[in-house]
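Homework help board

Subject: predicted structure for assignment chain

Our instructor gave us this sequence and asked us to write out the predicted structure in token form, then describe one feature. I got the tokens but I'm not sure how to describe them. Can anyone check?
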Amino acid sequence: MSKPDRYVSFVGIDGDSNARKLVALLRRHIDDPARTNRFWELFKDKLEKINKPDETSGFNQDELYLVHAYINNIRELFETYDDQPALALLDRIEAESC
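My token output:
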């Protein structure tokens, strides 16, 4: 089976679902009071505004957008806690969808 080429088509790539899965893995860390900080608390506020364009000046954010916008911060967190499954999914999202 050949690997989908995002530059030709996004057919066969479920970026939205992968991003939602990644956010669930991220929440395991940032919802832990010992692992969160001001940045992640503000990030959680952004997550709460997904699909609420009336709260984001008409811009409809989704998980994939937030993953793309904060990919380096997310990677650093997963590396800090050596979360290999999350890093693998992040790499996949970056290769396929960002």
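Reply (TA_rk): Your tokens look well-formed. For the description, you could write something like this. The longest helix spans residues 15-30. That's the kind of observation they're looking for.
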